[in-house]
């Protein structure tokens, strides 16, 4: 594929700071190139798949108390044009998973038994993260965050020009709930 300097710069800008993620993208590109030629837009789509992973990572790192790392990832996603609502919904989804874990814990299950429950659908690579989060959070703090997140989602939809400002506030709010 022949790319202009502008297209090349755009692709470089879209890549992750995480070399392992980029390595996986290059493997996908190589595999696809063995079957067909790729257009510039197809390359962008392959790289944008990476943004979904970064959205999940923001939820994991902020709920584990790593505010600075979450903000750095958020800034990268903002530059990539990822929807703020997608980020908020992913965060809420992870919080709902934690809420379900706490409900099971109230029934006397251990953290290990909880993360191994089939109905929770916790990916094996996520199990240690969930256990770490369960040790740091409690149900009352988590519930406070839900209403705040819903409010932020509405603000992001109403005031698109400030959506990432609101997301920054939301991440800070979650961090302070975790720390207090």
**Residue-averaged pLDDT:** 87
Reported for the largest beta sheet, the result is: none
Helix-and-strand structural type:
mainly alpha
Helix count equals: 9
Report how far apart the termini are: 53 Å
| Gyration radius from CA atoms, angstroms | 19 Å
Q: What percentage of residues falls in helices of 4 or more residues?
A: over 70%
**What is the number of beta strands?**
0
Query: What is the general shape?
Result: globular
Helix-strand string:
HHHHHHHHH
Low-pLDDT residue spans: none
How big a fraction of the residues is strand?
under 5%
Description:
The protein has helices at residues 5-14, 19-33, 40-63, 67-80, 84-106, 111-115, 127-136, 139-158, 163-179. The chain is globular and about 60 Å long. The chain has nine helices and no strands. Helix content is 77%, strand content 0%. The protein has 180 residues and is an all-alpha fold. The N and C termini lie far apart (53 Å). Helix 3 (40-63) runs parallel beside helix 5 (84-106), helix 5 (84-106) runs antiparallel to helix 8 (139-158) and helix 8 packs antiparallel against helix 9.
């Amino acid at each position: 594929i022949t790319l202009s300097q502008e297209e090349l710069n755009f692709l470089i800008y879209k890549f992750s700071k995480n070399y392992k993620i980029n390595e996986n993208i290059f493997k996908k590109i190589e595999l696809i190139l063995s079957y067909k030629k790729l257009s510039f837009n197809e390359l962008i789509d392959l790289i944008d798949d990476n943004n979904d992973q970064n959205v999940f990572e923001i939820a994991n790192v902020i709920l584990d108390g790593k505010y600075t790392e979450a903000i750095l990832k958020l800034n990268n996603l903002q530059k990539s044009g990822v929807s703020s609502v997608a980020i908020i919904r992913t965060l809420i989804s992870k919080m709902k998973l934690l809420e379900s874990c706490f409900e099971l814990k109230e029934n006397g299950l251990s953290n290990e038994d909880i993360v191994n429950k089939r109905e929770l659908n916790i990916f094996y690579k996520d199990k240690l993260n969930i256990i770490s989060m369960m040790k740091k959070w409690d149900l009352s703090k988590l519930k406070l965050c839900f209403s705040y997140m819903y409010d932020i989602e509405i603000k992001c939809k109403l005031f698109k020009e400030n959506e990432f400002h609101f997301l920054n506030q939301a991440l800070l709010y979650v961090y302070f709930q975790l720390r207090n």
